[in-house]
């Protein structure tokens, strides 16, 4: 009896072993398939594990640098910009907390990279495409993936850079470098107008907004003489719409909003102020200071549409505005002009005379 029980137990154990072996043989190829699939998925999403940092390194021979003398010159320039910012913030009372957008710290568009200790406030139309690309690289996306993807780079970035509170931002600033890129506000506005109105993607939000502006402003007496036969708003129509938004206290689109309101540089510390006009040197200085010269490069992206030079475009479009319209526009962007050391005079020289319909005469303070 005992012998028969033992034989039965052995047969049971052998049966289980055979089942386990069969299942293992089935799972092994499935496991291999999963590993290969997962590796390919990581590559597709842009996480090619090229080195321990998970970032592809720029070859030494391709690294761009400044000479020690150039580094010193840019450093002095940065000191002067910070000093001017501090003085102007104090002069206009922008360093005092308040209840409007000029006096409330705004952390909405800051990207905080804790791993590489670099923080950027993204001012749209101020080399934003170039640095959004760089911050995505620092987030782990491969450059090859970023060049091929149809996804919006800002959306990709926000998957890796969650929005931060003021306390979180200030804590991160303790061991990080914070920077902003400034651009002449009128030049930046024109770039935004052309990108979001003239070249708006069909049926996009800005395409619909442009058509709405045309419907509401094209027949206005002060604008009808300057109205073109286009589906998108003329520059005067767009500017008058924007000025009305400001007067009503309405929300201002992130592409058109004043940088001073958007990044509140009088209430949040910035270690570096890069400027669009000297961006090649300023970027190299920043990259050197952050130790990222083998990871990111000062590559220009989204250089503008239509192949026209910036100065030529400024002359063409701002010459369509009256002096009164231009000075009203200046009033909204005044702090951007003052804090970052820009001048309106070259624009006033090309302005149209004010309409004879009794527009109030305005002068620059």
TrEMBL record:
Pfam families xrefs: Sulfotransfer_2 (PF03567)
Subcellular location field: Golgi apparatus membrane
MF (Gene Ontology): sulfotransferase activity
Transmembrane segments: 16-37
InterPro entries: Carb_sulfotrans_8-10, Sulfotransferase
Keywords attached to this entry: Carbohydrate metabolism, Glycoprotein, Golgi apparatus, Membrane, Signal-anchor, Transferase, Transmembrane, Transmembrane helix
GO biological process per UniProt: carbohydrate biosynthetic process
Entry EC no(s): 2.8.2.-
Record membrane topology: Single-pass type II membrane protein
Cellular component per GO, a single term: Golgi membrane
PANTHER family listed in its UniProt record: CARBOHYDRATE SULFOTRANSFERASE
Record-stated family: Belongs to the sulfotransferase 2 family.
Name under which the protein is recorded: Carbohydrate sulfotransferase
Name of the encoding gene: LOC4813347
């Amino acid at each position: 009896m005992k012998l028969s029980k033992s034989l039965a137990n052995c047969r049971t154990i052998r049966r289980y072993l055979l089942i386990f072996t069969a299942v293992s043989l089935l799972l092994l190829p499935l496991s291999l398939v999963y590993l290969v699939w997962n590796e390919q998925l990581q590559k597709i999403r842009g996480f090619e594990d090229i080195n321990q940092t998970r970032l592809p390194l720029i070859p030494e021979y391709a690294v761009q640098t400044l000479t020690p003398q150039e580094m010193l010159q840019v450093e002095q320039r940065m000191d002067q910009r910070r000093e001017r910012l501090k003085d102007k913030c104090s002069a206009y009372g922008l360093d005092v907390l308040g209840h409007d957008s000029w006096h409330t710290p705004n952390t909405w568009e800051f990207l905080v990279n804790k791993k590489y200790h670099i923080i950027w406030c993204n001012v749209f139309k101020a080399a934003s495409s170039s640095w959004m690309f760089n911050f995505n690289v620092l987030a782990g996306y491969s450059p090859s993936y970023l060049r091929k993807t149809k996804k919006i780079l800002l959306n990709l970035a926000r998957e890796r850079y969650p929005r931060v509170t003021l306390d979180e931002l200030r804590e991160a600033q303790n061991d990080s470098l914070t920077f902003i890129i400034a651009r002449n506000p009128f030049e930046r506005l024109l770039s935004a107008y052309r990108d979001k109105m003239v070249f708006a993607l069909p049926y996009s939000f800005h395409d619909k907004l442009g058509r709405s502006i045309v419907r509401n402003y094209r027949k206005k007496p002060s604008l009808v003489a300057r109205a073109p036969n286009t589906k998108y708003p003329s520059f005067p129509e767009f500017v008058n719409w924007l000025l009305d938004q400001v007067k009503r206290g309405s929300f201002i689109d992130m592409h058109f909003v004043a940088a001073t309101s958007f990044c509140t540089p009088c209430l949040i510390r910035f270690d570096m102020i890069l400027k669009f006009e000297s961006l090649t040197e300023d970027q190299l200085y920043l990259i050197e200071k952050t130790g990222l010269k083998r990871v990111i490069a000062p590559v220009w992206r989204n250089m503008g549409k239509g192949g026209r030079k910036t100065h030529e475009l400024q002359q063409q479009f701002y010459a369509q505005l009256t002096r009164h319209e231009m000075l009203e526009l200046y009033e909204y962007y005044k702090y951007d002009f003052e804090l970052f050391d820009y001048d309106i005079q070259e624009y006033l020289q090309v302005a149209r005379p004010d309409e004879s319909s009794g527009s109030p005469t305005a002068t620059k303070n």
